[in-house]
Structure formats: C-alpha cells, structure tokens
Amino acid sequence: MVCIRCQMVVKAELEKLGLHYVYVKIGEADIIENILPDQLEQLKISLKRAGLILMDDKKSILVEKIKSAIIELVHYTEEQIKVNLSDYLSEKLNYDYTYLASLFKEVNGINIEKFYLTHKIERVKELLVYDELNLSEIAFRLNYSSVSHLSNQFSKITGMTPTYFKKLKNNRRNTLENV
Asked: pLDDT category, 162, cuts 50, 70, 90?
C-alpha cells in the first residue's frame, strides 16, 4: 500500500470479512483476530482484484516497510526533511542500515539511495506543477544543499532541467486552456 486510497481499500476488504484492525498504515495492517485460512484466501483474492498484493514473506514485508517509510518521508512530510536516510530507516524499522540496504538491493535490484532519490525527484516534479514554491524553497524543503545540487540530480534522472520541466507544464496548461 503506497497511497491513502490503498489503505481505504484494505480497510473496506477487512470490514467485509468481519475482521477488526488496530491500524492500517501504508504497507502494513495489524488485525486483532486470528485470520482463518479461508478468510486469508478471500482477502488475497479481494486485494488482488483491487490491484494489491498481500505479502506474507518476512523479507518482502521488510522491503515494503522500507519503501513505505521513504514514501512517507518524501511525499507526506510537509516540513523540511532534516534527517539522514540511513539513520531514519534504522530508527524507524529497528534494523541495522547495512542489513536493510543489502536486503533492499537483493529484492529490488536497485539500492535504497536510488529509490529515495527517484522519489525526491518525483516530489520535486509535483511541487513544480503545484507552482506554490520556488526552486530555492523546494531545495530547502527536500534537504538539498543548493538549487544547483537539486538541478543536477533532477537533470540526471529526468534528462531535463527543473526550469524546462516547469515550462513544459506551463505550455501544456496553455494548450488545454485554449481548447
């Protein structure tokens, strides 16, 4: 589960099965009752129909927790990101960062830092489209050392500068407005 809509789907499916939960967070649910095998199978089917997968492999679950923690940090934190990623993940998940990084790479084929950077750039795109913050404010909020650093990473990932990306967005908006 990487979005709030996914959480709503999970909650609804649990309620349909008469299961009560303590919480349903991004990537995780704590269910009060013991789930019967037929309920578990029905839950898997219902979630699959909704485009979600129920994970029960401990390594996969931990990797999903890593992804969820990064997504929460980058996309759902409104104040400036001030933490070191390795410290943040180690504290949040109670595992040594070296183990988390190794497991993540083994399961996903990319390292945690690349996943984190990709999400930071997606967040930059989102903030550019909203057009509420200038590039300096975006760089500050996402803990870049400078606008230049943000621009270099943005260019490496997207193949264009943030300014050009913003211009494309504005051109598309003008075209739609003229229709």
From this structure: very high
**Per-domain boundaries in the chain:** 4-49, 58-172
pLDDT tens digits for 48-101? 898 888 877 788 889 989 998 999 899 888 777 787 899 999 999 999 999 999
Helix/strand/coil (H/E/C) assignment for every residue in the chain: CCCHHHHHHHHHHHHHCCCCEEEEECCEEEECCCCCHHHHHHHHHHHHHCCCCCCCCHHHHHHHHHHHHHHHHHHCCCCCCCCCHHHHHHHHHCCCHHHHHHHHHHHHCCCHHHHHHHHHHHHHHHHHHHCCCCHHHHHHHCCCCCHHHHHHHHHHHHCCCHHHHHHHHHHHHHHHHHC
CATH of 58-172 among 3.40.50.720, 3.30.70.100, 1.10.10.60, 1.10.3720.10: 1.10.10.60
